[in-house]
Amino acid sequence: MNDKFNYDLEAIATNYHNSSSSDMHIENAMQQFEWPWIQNQIKKNSSILDLGYGDGISLRNLMAISESLNLKVTLLEGAPTLAKKALAQSVNNIEVILTYFEEFKKNNAFDLIIASHVLEHVNQPEVLLDVLFDNAKVGAELIGIVPNKDSIHRRLAVIMGLQEKRDDLSERDHRVGHLRVFGTDTLSALFKNSNWELVSMKGFFLKPLSNSQMLSYSDSLIDALFKVAEEIPIDLCANIGFIARKVR
Fold first, then answer.
1. For the whole prediction, is pTM greater than 0.70?
2. N or C: which end of the chain has fewer CB within 10 A?
3. Number of domains comprising the chain
């Protein structure tokens, strides 16, 4: 793996993914709630590139449907301990590769690329989008999710003087490896300057407070905050989902 990207992914894995962090149940619930939207884009007999193991939620969901839909999945992970976990769990039609996302080259190979909670972690999102474009077949889709700088909890933090700007990064952002947060404006601009065609965006999770302030919330309340997000504008949600397409 090339050090030019200057990622310490193993440190992030140690400090968060392998640490049993107190807010893990909120993050895992969020990703599990987002999964049906991702799965809705998966077609039978697809070749899929999945970026990052994280806590294994995407991999486990893909494994659950891979045989019935005849999927061929390639999972990329840059942290050695997380790649080892993924390899231990994977089945025959799921290949696990230890690599930085930007270094993986398999031109015109994939029908669908899943980049769930990825673009906020990489040094140059525009570079990664170019790499993914080359790896995608014509007509392929890129589906992903990013944190929203305009979420209600960030708006409140600015009003209360806890951060100067909505896109300021918190201690938790740094701990989990966030290098930025997006808005619908900056996400649209990123894709406008790429070869991808941005097809749609969607909001996920009404997050009124930071994770640390929500630790006492019941599972039923967390679930309700996911569901009510369907009724509010994207710009107020905690996360933004996007679908882009390679049209040429």
1. yes
2. C
3. 1
Give the contacts of 122 (CB within 8 A, at least 6 positions apart).
Answer: 5, 101, 102, 128, 179
**What is the pLDDT tens value at each position of the chain, 248 positions in all?**
555 555 688 888 777 766 666 788 898 999 999 999 999 999 999 999 999 999 899 999 999 999 999 999 999 999 999 999 999 988 788 999 999 999 999 999 999 999 999 999 999 999 999 999 999 999 999 999 999 999 999 999 999 999 999 999 999 999 899 999 999 999 999 999 999 999 999 999 999 999 999 999 999 999 999 999 999 999 999 999 999 999 98
Q: What is the C-alpha separation between 138 and 245, in angstroms, rounded? A: 8
What is the rounded distance in angstroms from the CA atom of residue 69 to the CA atom of residue 246?
22
Q: Sign of the CA dihedral 109, 52, 27, 177? A: negative
Q: How many of the other CB atoms lie within 10 Å of CB of 4?
A: 10
Find the domain containing 235 and state its range: 3-245
Report how far residue 146's alpha carbon sits from residue 183's, in angstroms, rounded to the nearest whole number. 9
- Give the Cα separation of 93 and 239 in Å (integer): 30
